[in-house]
Description:
The protein is α+β, with helices and mostly antiparallel strands. It has one domain. Helix content is 30%, strand content 11%. It has eight helices and nine strands. The strands form three sheets. It has a four-stranded antiparallel β-sheet with strand order 4-5-8-9. The protein has a three-stranded mixed β-sheet with strand order 1-7-6. A hairpin with a 2-residue loop joins β2 and β3. The radius of gyration is 20 Å and the shape is globular.
Amino acid sequence: MLVVIAVIAILAGLLLPALSRAKQAAHSAVCRSNVRQLGIALISYVGDHAAYPMFIRPRTNAPPDAPAWWFQQLETYSGATWPATNYLTPRQPVEANTGLYVCPGYSRLPGVFALSALASYREQTIPAGSYGYNWTGGSLYRDPLLGLGGGPARIGRPSVWDVRESEVSNPSGMIALGDAALLLAPAGESKGKIVGCSNLAEALWNIPVRIDLGMERPPTLPGDYDSPVVAMRRRHGGRWNIVFCDGHVENVRTKALCGRSDDVLKRWNKDNLPHRDLLGSGF
């Protein structure tokens, strides 16, 4: 009997990793299908507007129900809506979220789909979730913004501006949207839970991503960054599903997405240049 139990234990030990990898592969396949469909929705939007959705459109002089966030602007084309928040409260169960904007690998972490109202942006709850949009490009939040999501007023610009289709030099070589970089929520009802960054370009500065790449952990930024590293490795076995501006999808390793080579960096920017100078020291 003891021998039988030992054999069963050994077989279980051999099978469980294989089953886990199979589950990751199945989740990744669903996720790739999601981002492919979102890429089609994005192309359709650009075809109608000759411009890319803004990351967030100001609500000045706009109806209360006017689309604001990038994923809301795509709803007409994707036929899908962003999931209901699932941070809730300790007394309420986490909601089961499904749909085009839900990566099953992210949902099972479980990842939340909004930060609490304690952390707001322009008087709105900040969306978080499976996927991020390449809003700022490699410059992050500094001028010039090199991503797809437009920007606020600047001297010589209108009150808001979006990125015209003609501004993207190499659509097949520019990242549009895909699996979000992960962090732990810092405050509110979702504190300590996994959240995906709505701005996909945050991946270039994301501390867990840097740790995963073997880069030095900044000593001035205390916090739990190891949990998001583990979560990103669990999501798709350390890979990312990314759709480009021409609609093709790539399943890439972290180094191929967030490494520091010129070939990697230029894929974040609409002018197809690496702009290494904009990374700043230590990055």
